[in-house]
Amino acid sequence: MNTTVKNLATDSGADIADWRPEDEQFWESTGKKIAYRNLWISVPALLCGFAVWGMWGIITVQMLNLGFPFAPAELFTLTAIAGISGATMRIPASFLVRLAGGRNTIFLTTTMLLAPAIGTGIALQHPEWPLWVFQLLALWSGVGGGNFASSMSNISTFFPKRLQGTALGLNAGLGNFGVTTMQIVIPLVMTVGLFGAFGGEPMTLVKDSGWIFGKIPAGTPTWIQNAGFAWVLSLIPLGALCWFGMNNLKTVSPDAGHPVAAFAKVTYLYTLAFVPAIFILYLYLPAPTGLGLLNMWVAIPLDILLALMVMKLAAFGPMKEGVSKQFAIFRNKHTWSLTALYIVTFGSFIGFSMVLPLAITVIFGFQHIADAAGVMTHTLKNPNAPSALTYAWIGPFVGAAVRPVGGWISDKVGGSIVTQIISAVMVLASTAVGYVMMQAYGSATPEQYFPAFMGLFIVLFVASGIGNGSTFRTIGVIFDRQQAGPVLGWTSAVAAYGAFIAPVVIGAQIKAGTPQYAMYGFAIFYAVCLVLNWWFYLRKNAEVKNP
User: Fold this and answer.
1) How many helices (H) and strands (E) does the chain have?
2) Could you tell me if 435 and 523 are in contact, meaning their C-beta atoms sit under 8 angstroms apart?
3) Is the pLDDT of residue 396 over 80?
4) Contact (Cβ atoms closer than 8 angstroms) between residue 200 and residue 225
5) Which among 47, 443, 372 is positioned nearest to 234, based on CA atoms?
6) What is the dihedral of CA 493, 285, 505, 388, to 10 degrees?
7) What pLDDT digit, counting tens, does each position of 317-358 carry?
């Protein structure tokens, strides 16, 4: 034990050369304290990443309420751009810790968030600026979405396998509170002059707005720029905490090099990730922003493929060898099965988080009445409509809160059995919520179905949150320490496209008058993944029995 302490004590600064978390004596005497310190710094950094990534969902609504000179369809491109950008950024982020070191990566990617936060605050004071300025900032905000992959990859290296579910569940679950935090904090900070004369002048609402405690009437002064500026208050001290409190594990990233060289690698790979994202968005988005040539199901796999190709072709020197080693995860079939299972869990969580305000507003905000010809209309405002901003945050809050519980349970009973149970629950809940949506969308008094709708969505969030923890546990059991991090990053990258898929699919089916079909489609996908999970990890002759 004394030798261990001596080795660690002579390490250079934040770099740790001797790291053996599976050694019980080492873990108890030295490793536990270091691992948990890195975890508790990682959590708020990840939370801010989620908040900056997701802030455009609230900002665009308020831009509409303030009369910014953009059509609703143009404003919705901002959310789509942030969603696709964040998912694409996760692909290189999956490999950053191995190439640049955990402390170096988390410090730089957290500090990078200052650029979109400050830039957004400045741009929102200028409604006359062209749309492309706001689109560029939404693209830049994708850095916050990418940070999840590097954060999870980093924390997985610090903990023994028996604690992977708990540690990763805490990091992801508490980090995911960034979605709820953003939904609560942004409407609040927009009501006050948070920075005095330095924060700019307020604008006046031309339409009613709101927050979790009620309506904000038209005519109220609003500091929309605080939606960006507010995050500076936490990002600056967090950057300092990351630099002075986190560690690089030389056993994981032996070739990270000097911090300046490590920062160059991170910046280079993150910059490369913007290239395929911009190209695919140009092909996907309708005119005048883009060409509108691709549908969603073509755009997403093409974006993933191009991001991987750019990384592979653009890596050079020692970085090229490091990237090639990490690409070995794609030759393992369990990478692909667990990617599908992670879409069930995190993909559902982030997708439903994005779509719930829209679903509440469109389904319950209007009366659905047949006209004289028997055609159903959905334009008459419902005077008894529930407020989306009052209720939409509840689902993401509950889903994030139960994530650590899912990891803890999975550490006790096994990850795959927990995944199996929650997949079955999600099949039933998706089918049920689809039926309720169908009933509400054909009713003159849709609010009578809202309690059932909200209750079922909370069930979906609870199940997806618990399932996140169980999937982390399974990855930690199946893959060795060198590959578990990149697999966590890769699966989270693909699942992050749920932030784009769910709103598009549900929105299209609502427009078609059949919102239930979207939920029935999700239920079928969950059922397929339930069989997949049983086949690979639970059946009698499964190659990997987990539990």
Assistant:
1) 26, 8
2) no
3) yes
4) yes
5) 47
6) 90
7) 766 776 777 788 888 899 999 999 999 998 999 889 878 877
pLDDT of 115 above 60: yes
**pLDDT at 446 exceeding the cut of 70:** yes
> Mind listing the pLDDT tens digit for each residue in 152-167?
889 988 999 888 878 8
The gap from C-alpha 187 to its chain's centroid, in whole angstroms, comes to 20
If we measure between CA atoms, which residue out of 234, 226, 243, 184 comes closest to residue 44?
Answer: 234
pLDDT, tens digit (0-9, with 9 covering 90-100), for 284-304: 888 877 898 998 899 999 999
Task: Give pLDDT, residue 215.
Answer: 77
Contacts of 231 by beta carbon, 8 Å cutoff, 6+ apart = 48, 51, 52, 55, 113, 117
Placement of tokens 């653009």 in the chain: 314
Closest by CA position to 454, among listed 445, 466, 444, 462: 462
- The amino acid at 324: S
349-394: pLDDT as tens digits: 988 987 887 788 788 988 999 888 888 888 888 888 887 777 888 9
384's tokens: 């008894």
Helices 450-478 and 164-175 meet at what angle, rounded to 10?
140
pLDDT bin (cut points 50, 70, 90) of residue 10 is very low
CA distance 77 to 269: 25
Q: Are 416 and 470 in contact (CB under 8 A)?
A: yes
In order of 11, 60, 200, 224, 246, the CA distances from 64 in angstroms are: 54, 6, 20, 11, 41
Q: Which two tokens stand for residue 43?
A: 């959590």
Angle between helices 72-100 and 102-112 (to 10 degrees): 160
Confidence of residue 124 (pLDDT cuts 50, 70, 90): very high
β partners of residue 175: none
488 to 102, 224, 278: CA distances (angstroms): 15, 36, 25
Cis-peptide, bond into residue 547, ω within 30° of zero: yes
**CA proximity to 464, closest of 395, 521, 538, 518:** 395
Given a contact cutoff of 8 angstroms between Cβ atoms, the answer to whether 399 and 464 are in contact is yes
Backbone angles phi, psi at 384, to 5 degrees: -105, 20
User: What are the residues facing 216 on neighbouring strands?
Assistant: 209
- The tokens describing 85, both together, are 């950008």
Query: How is 356-379 classified by DSSP, letter by letter?
Result: HHHHHHHHHSEEEEE-TTS-EEEE
